[in-house]
Amino acid sequence: MRQVIIVGGGAAGFFTAINAKEMNPSLDIIILEKGREVLQKVKVSGGGRCNVTHACFEPKELVTFYPRGEKELLGPFHQFMTGDTCEWFSSHGIPLKIESDQRVFPESNTSQTIIDCFLEKTSTLEIPVFKNHGVTSVTRHGDQWMVNTKEEQFVCDALVVAAGSSKQVWKLSKSLGHSVVDPVPSLFTFNIKDDRIQGLLGVSVPQATVKLSNTSLEATGPLLITHWGMSGPAVLRLSAFGARILAEMNYEYQVEVNWISQTPQDTLIVLQDTKKE
Ligand SMILES: Cc1cc2nc3c(=O)[nH]c(=O)nc-3n(C[C@H](O)[C@H](O)[C@H](O)COP(=O)(O)OP(=O)(O)OC[C@H]3O[C@@H](n4cnc5c(N)ncnc54)[C@H](O)[C@@H]3O)c2cc1C
């Protein structure tokens, strides 16, 4: 029997464990989780509702929603796409619904449904989950891996690293010969000190275009003025697509906001028409 160890009890670790075991029941799989609890991020995802996927069924279109990795994701999406995700959840007892903005959620409207499904499946498939078992080092011995935690040592034939954003595990992966692209923050709001937005806290517009000055980067969508600057989908999207450039700029940059996403010429026509009326 082949032994498989999965490092990390998050969405990726559980999904891998369940699928590997369902496709190959003879595998002996365990999950090692550093924390006291598993699936903690799934719990808070989608505001506690878990936005499972996006109702876009074309791989070529779906990859454009990702700020990076467009080329790398195309192959995997040809193997497992949105339709497969929906099919997977419904065949595992979780009906989904598509909302008007194409986001897909469990019908129950709670991420706990997803957590319960993952826990129930690992239990019925007899996949042990070791909590409080942070992996500290991994070494190769012949055809096997020695996986060390503070508590005990494990041996396996195949190792899956699904530890999310763990600096320790990135270091560990580097020690095994992998190259790790330096991570930078993404999906953040903008801290802006500018008199022009003083006193506008809470003001939101449905369709603004935010442009990063002196670049071709821009994003359109709802924008919100906050205590510290600007937030909302347009800003989050710009920070995600511009993550590397903003890091290179050391987060000192200027943005231009078009509050109505219209050209001056078009705006003038609307104003003149309105005046006539
Ligand atoms: C507020 C919020 C809302 C979100 N909403 C959505 C959403 O609606 N839809 C969506 O698709 N995504 C959403 N995301 C993103 C999504 O939650 C993550 O992309 C996803 O959970 C990542 O799963 P993962 O298994 O890769 O990593 P993680 O969930 O981070 O799991 C990694 C696990 O590995 C463990 N670990 C780390 N180091 C070790 C070690 N050395 N040994 C053993 N275990 C270790 C960690 O403790 C953790 O449990 C949201 C994220 C946040 C923060």
What does this structure look like?
The chain has helices at residues 11-23, 40-48, 59-62, 70-79, 82-91, 112-124, 167-175, 233-241, 243-248, 264-276; strands spanning 3-7, 28-32, 53-54, 96-98, 103-106, 129-130, 135-141, 144-149, 153-156, 158-161, 190-191, 204-212, 218-225, 229-231, 255-258. It is of the alpha+beta class and 277 residues long. It folds into two domains: 3-175, FAD/NAD(P)-binding domain (3-Layer(bba) Sandwich); 190-276, no CATH class. Strands 11-14-13-12-15 form a five-stranded antiparallel beta sheet. Strands 6-2-1-10 form a four-stranded parallel beta sheet, covered by helices on one side. The protein is elongated and about 80 Å long. The protein starts with a strand and ends with a helix. The model has no long low-confidence stretch (mean pLDDT 96). The structure holds flavin-adenine dinucleotide (FAD).
Outline of the structure:
With about 280 residues, this protein is α+β, with helices and mostly antiparallel strands. The protein has helices spanning about 10-25, 40-50, 60, 70-80, 80-90, 110-125, 165-175, 235-240, 245-250, 265-275, and strands at about 5, 30, 55, 95-100, 105, 130, 135-140, 145-150, 155, 160, 190, 205-210, 220-225, 230, 255-260. Helices cover about 35% and strands about 25% of the residues.
